[in-house]
Amino acid sequence: MSNVSNIVKSIQDIMRKDAGTYGDAQRLEQLGWMFFLKIFDDREQEVELLRDNYRSPLPQHLRWSNWATDAEGITGEALLDFVNNSLLPKLKALTGGADKIAGLIRMTFEDANNYMKNGTLMRQVINKINGIDFNASDDRHMFGDIYEKILKDLQSAGNAGEFYTPRAVTQFIVEQVNPRLGESILDPACGTGGFLTCTIEHLRKQARTEDDERIIQDCFAGIEKKHLPHVLCMTNLLLHGIDVPSNVRHDNTLARPLRDWSPKERVDVIVTNPPFGGMEEDGIETNFPAEFRTRETADLFLVLLMKLLKPGGRAGLVLPDGTLFGEGVKTRIKEALLTECNLHTIVRLPNGVFNPYTGIRTNLLFFTKGQPTTEVWFYEHPYPLGAKSYNKGKPIRIEEFEAERAWWDARVENEQAWRVPIAEIKAGNYNLDLKNPHNPDTGPGDVEHLLPAYEKLLAQIAATRATLKRELHQALAASNGAQE
Question: Which region holds residue 306: left if phi is over 0, alpha if psi is between -120 and 50, else beta?
Fold first, then answer.
């Protein structure tokens, strides 16, 4: 089993020797498209055995098994020449064949680059990749775990608004939203496909027949703005047994005017971690109604989610604290959310869940469209015993959510959980950044507790002032009397 792990490590070591793959971003992009071609080729070989009439969307000379599998094959300058001047340009211009998959491959490669400058090192990388058999379930499973680690590494090469969502968070959100077979599922900011693959695993537990499996192949959709996460998402879906992941588009979800989304495109379930801390380019906000215009990505996604859910549709997403306490446009967005949807639960995560990428505090929001909110339940997720934060070596774990799972269907107020009626939220101008009333250590406290103390302090100041004034008058009177 550790063989696959060693192979991936040695591939990264070889790439570090190449002047072109000098950083994480270049190495991962290179690995992304190379793994894609190898995984796709392994799947094709399996399909060819099962289906007599299978025709590859790739011309024979571009198939991985044709140019890459011979360890003594094309290398050095000849290999570089083939990849740079034949393979990549032709994949970017692919047409025809099994059109859906041909279009998918073209989209996957439209921004792909070969960063490697040394053809001999490239041959060594290819030979190592050939050591993994993606049709063998052991190898595939092992690679899936390593792939998760590779995706985490990608984050140190990422920029604002791009965070790897910890596996425990995606799993908890998907479990609580609970997509069912036959429902349509969307992640409008799908990144490398964490929520989508988690959803696929969740649905497979419900599948009983071949028809069920066919439903799973087509019931989800994803949209990803950036090229590299998009390629990694495709590869991730192939690894999870999705034959033609054609419902994942390389596109900016927010670039489309809100009114252009038709009722037909609405979905039953949305699970997502929209980018936050990022700003959209000029003009994107004009795709949204005037009262919701902002350049803050997370806020625009929240408006979009409300639009894209069917009546009765369910959403689970990650949002930063800023959206919860923000005012102005944020207030109007929250008012719309609480009017159009039942925001039934906010799980407040502690600091550091997204370490080391950002220290921004985050929350998990769960809502259903079509009924106004009457009350919001808050659940403050504590650190595990003895921990003061999370880090790369000690991330948040799914076991930590056991308490929330047990509480979810039979809710009572406790040390971690409290509910707030809608009237109170409205009175607070839709501020959802509400502290745990059972825990005095969560911050400065709320207004109700602070006001009496503040008033007492004001009274003390006034009394002190009066005493000083009186003493000053007496001193002045005494000094005047002495002068007379």
Answer: alpha
